[in-house]
């Protein structure tokens, strides 16, 4: 581990060039073990004798740098030779030093300059050790990376010579930042995507289409004249006329420039990545473009794929692919809202609505362990949780319901997925502190009234140019107050904690909610509700309001039918469409299905008019969109201000497909898939559906297929798992490890 080394940086201003921190190590004989422990304020690569060590990207990752930074451990013995060994740490600005957030700079947040910290430990056969620490004996050189920023791209000159700047300077001011061993998953290269088409746009520009929107970079293999340049720009979409469109990138340039060496060159960025489907050849040294020179490389955290799905409708299969690619693109070390524009931040609201889906698709335990660790460190003394984690000091966000609730929802969902009680216990205090914050946040003790919230973000209740949606934010806040309190109770029971205080609180919150926001079994406008009403209408009865009441159990049983019927009526009055945003959408299909209206839930899934999931699919999407109408019916774009074509929030629908259509749900007492229910809800329009997940016990699979007037159900239950099965035709049973077949008469 790193314990004695000092942070070092370039001895003078070297401009935008990425520095190389170098130590020459003399070894008269080869050691039996050679280890480097390294980290950076910035992002870095380790090279030994000119060869890159390891395949991890964007190390050390993004943490709450003021409090902790991950360090990485490398075995460098295979790279060493007798006598002189050149150890290089080449570093770029990354998240810690480069511009990040909306304001264009994070100067002063973490570090004003790139710096590195490292220990080199050589162990010899006779038991002796040599240790080399970063200090002022290290030398600093310029590199071939002349410029690199996360948002703006990279310039690499293969003809540039390394130049000695001088000996490194040592950080004089002690830092509170604690180096910790790697916690999260490493970011690595994954899918490699070949171009599908060279396009000449109406403007005469040469554009390459890779056919898939993703986060990563373009790798180029080429031989050309020394000193000639390649300049690339990136885009997610083309405009309605077929021209290259970058308006939604805002100030992010996403520009890559390479200067050729004259030999065989292989180029790809070192310290940045882009979100894109298309590249434009702004400069290219050849008249003829060989598409074989270009490969689009996806990068994301190295999570194991666990979930799989397929059905008889190719549109739904494409939707699932879009969900997967949305997750891959936005799980680059932290769960981000988008991978392309000048943002790419760890928005908590987006993360919590997608957490369950994410943990079905991939093993996210280590990924969330690291991110939730930063959330704990960034939680306010009063229990508050900001909208972005890790926090940017220069960009403070609203303390908002459904965003801060990630502090309760994500630890619980990760526990359900993996059954790790130690991890749940680690985060239990954070969960309680968040609930206590809500307890004291409002004007009334058991309601969260007032405050500036994000609301039902991007809902389409009325004027959809207003982001917060029409549902009164006090209702949403108080509903989530009840829900997060419920999760604290459930977590406390798992951990054997006394939760009587929170049980009492939940009872009082529920009662207060009903007095304030319900009348005659339906939601009403709270008389004192203001929220953002100066800027927008605030509605009493919305689809989202009803969905939250039903999902969070804020109704009396005698009111259930009335609420469900009113929700169905509102959907039908809107031409069979939702109006829900980030808050209501993850739950609406669940609420309908749980209350006997799976027909309406499936209608929404198959809806093709906007807003709907299939609207984007039918318009060529290969990832999830941020807005329902990121692209409008007329081919115009929603806005340039906030319009990502690679998001994941609305991909939470897969939780319903997996948990309701295929019927697989984890029980509290069976976290980690030791005990589940399998209650599939079928629909002939799918033809067939099958889903599986790799659990700690093995593969759990649920599948059904229509055959004439029959439905065939195939179930695989791994050893160690118990499944309570309830099929549509009335078959009920409890199954343990094995493969099972059931055939029932179709009822539709």
SSE layout:
Elements: E1 8-9, E2 19-27, E3 33-41, E4 43-48, E5 51-52, E6 68-75, E7 83-92, H1 94-97, E8 115-123, E9 129-133, E10 139-142, E11 145-149, E12 153-157, E13 164-167, E14 169-170, E15 178-181, E16 187-193, E17 197-200, E18 206-223, E19 229-235, E20 237-238, E21 244-245, E22 255-259, E23 264-267, E24 274-283, E25 294-301, E26 307-311, H2 314-330, E27 331-332, E28 334-335, H3 348-361, H4 365-378, H5 406-418, H6 421-441, H7 473-495, H8 500-517, E29 518-519, E30 522-523, H9 543-551, H10 560-573, H11 585-594, H12 598-606, H13 613-618, H14 653-661, E31 664-666, E32 675-678, E33 688-695, E34 698-707, E35 710-717, E36 722-726, E37 732-735, E38 738-745
Parallel strand pairs: 6-15, 12-22, 32-36
Antiparallel strand pairs: 1-8, 1-14, 2-7, 2-10, 3-6, 3-8, 4-5, 4-7, 8-9, 10-13, 11-12, 16-25, 17-18, 18-23, 18-24, 18-25, 19-22, 19-24, 20-21, 26-33, 27-28, 29-30, 31-32, 33-34, 34-35, 35-38, 36-37
Helix pairs in contact: 3-5, 3-14, 4-5, 5-6, 6-7, 7-8, 9-10, 9-11, 11-12, 11-14
Description:
It is a single chain. With 748 residues, this protein is α+β, with helices and mostly antiparallel strands. The chain has 4 domains: 175 residues, Galactose-binding domain-like (Jelly Rolls, Sandwich); 113 residues, Sandwich (Jelly Rolls), CATH 2.60.120.260; 355 residues, Glycosyltransferase; 80 residues, Maltose phosphorylase, domain 3, CATH 2.60.420.10. The protein is 24% helix and 29% strand. It is built from 14 helices and 38 strands. The strands form 8 sheets. Strands 11, 12, 16, 17, 18, 19, 22, 23, 24 and 25 form a 10-stranded mixed beta sheet that branches. Strand 20 and strand 21 form a beta hairpin. Helix 3 runs parallel beside helix 14 and helix 9 packs across helix 11. The chain is globular and about 80 Å long. It starts with 7 loop residues before the first strand and ends with a strand. 51% of the residues are buried. The mean pLDDT is 95.
């Amino acid at each position: 581990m790193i314990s004695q080394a000092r942070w070092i940086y370039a001895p003078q201003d070297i401009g935008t060039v990425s520095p190389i921190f170098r130590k020459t190590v003399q070894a008269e004989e080869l050691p039996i073990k050679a280890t480097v422990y390294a980290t950076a304020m910035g992002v870095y690569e380790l090279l030994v004798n000119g060869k890159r060590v390891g395949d991890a990207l964007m190390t050390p990752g993004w943490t709450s740098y003021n409090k902790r930074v991950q360090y990485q451990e490398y075995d460098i013995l295979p790279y060493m030779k007798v006598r002189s060994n050149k150890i290089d740490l080449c570093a770029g600005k990354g998240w810690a030093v480069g511009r990040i957030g909306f304001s264009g700079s994070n100067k002063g947040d973490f570090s004003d300059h790139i710096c590195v910290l490292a220990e080199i430990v050589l162990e010899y056969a006779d038991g002796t050790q040599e240790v080399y620490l970063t200090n002022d004996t290290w030398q600093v050189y310029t590199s071939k990376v002349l410029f690199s920023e996360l948002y703006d791209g990279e310039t690499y000159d293969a003809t540039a010579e390394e130049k000695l700047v001088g000996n490194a300077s040592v950080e004089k001011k002690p830092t509170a930042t604690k180096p910790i061993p790697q916690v999260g998953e490493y970011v690595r290269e994954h899918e490699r995507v070949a171009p599908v088409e060279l396009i000449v746009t109406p403007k005469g520009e040469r554009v390459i289409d890779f056919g898939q929107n993703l986060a990563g970079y373009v790798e180029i293999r080429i031989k050309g004249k020394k000193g000639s340049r390649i300049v690339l720009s990136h885009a997610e979409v083309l405009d309605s006329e077929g021209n290259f469109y970058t308006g939604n990138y805002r100030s992010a340039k996403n520009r890559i420039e390479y200067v050729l060496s004259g030999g065989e060159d292989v180029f790809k960025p070192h310290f940045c990545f882009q979100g894109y489907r298309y590249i434009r050849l702004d400069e290219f040294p050849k008249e003829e473009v060989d598409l074989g020179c270009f490969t689009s490389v996806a990068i994301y955290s190295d999570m194991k794929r666990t979930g799989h799905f397929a059905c008889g409708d190719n549109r739904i299969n494409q939707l699932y692919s879009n969900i997967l690619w949305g997750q891959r693109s936005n799980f680059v070390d932290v769960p981000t809202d988008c991978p392309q524009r000048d943002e790419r931040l760890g928005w908590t609201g987006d993360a919590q609505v997608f957490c369950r889906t994410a943990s079905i698709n991939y093993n996210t335990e280590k990924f969330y362990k690291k991110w939730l660790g930063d959330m704990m460190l960034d939680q306010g003394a009063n229990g508050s949780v900001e909208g972005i984690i890790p926090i940017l000091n220069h960009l403070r966000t609203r303390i908002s319901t459904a965003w801060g609730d990630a502090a309760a929802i994500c630890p619980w969902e990760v526990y359900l997925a993996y059954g790790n009680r130690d991890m749940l216990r680690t985060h239990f205090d954070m969960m309680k502190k968040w609930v206590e914050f809500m307890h004291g946040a409002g004007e009334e003790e058991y309601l969260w009234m007032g405050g500036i919230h994000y609301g039902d973000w991007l809902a389409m209740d009325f004027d959809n140019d207003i982001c917060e949606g029409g549902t009164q934010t006090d209702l949403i806040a108080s509903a989530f107050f009840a829900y997060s309190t419920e999760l604290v109770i459930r977590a406390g029971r798992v951990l054997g904690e006394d939760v009587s205080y929170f049980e009492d609180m939940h009872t009082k919150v529920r009662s207060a909610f009903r007095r304030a926001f319900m009348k005659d079994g339906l939601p009403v406008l709270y008389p004192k509700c203001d929220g953002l009403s100066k800027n927008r209408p605030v509605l009493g009865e919305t689809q989202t309001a009803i969905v939250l009441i039903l999902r969070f159990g804020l109704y009396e049983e005698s009111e259930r039918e009335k609420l469900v019927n009113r929700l169905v009526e509102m959907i039908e009055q809107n031409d069979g469409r939702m109006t829900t945003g980030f808050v209501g959408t993850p739950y609406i299909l669940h609420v309908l299905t749980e209350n006997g209206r799976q027909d309406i839930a499936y209608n929404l899934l198959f809806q093709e008019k906007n807003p709907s999931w299939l609207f984007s699919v039918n318009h060529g999407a290969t990832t999830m969109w941020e807005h329902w109408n990121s692209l409008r019916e007329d081919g115009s774009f929603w806005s340039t201000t906030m319009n990502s074509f690679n998001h994941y929030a609305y991909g939470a629908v897969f939780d319903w497909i997996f948990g309701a259509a295929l019927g697989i749900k984890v029980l509290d007492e069976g976290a980690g898939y030791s005990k589940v229910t399998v209650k599939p809800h079928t629909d002939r329009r799918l033809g067939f559906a099958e889903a599986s997940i790799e659990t700690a016990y093995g593969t759990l699979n649920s599948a059904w297929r229509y055959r004439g007037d029959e439905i065939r159900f195939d179930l695989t239950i791994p050893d160690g798992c118990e499944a309570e099965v309830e099929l549509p035709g009335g078959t009920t049973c409890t199954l343990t490890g094995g493969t099972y077949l059931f055939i029932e008469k179709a009822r539709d």
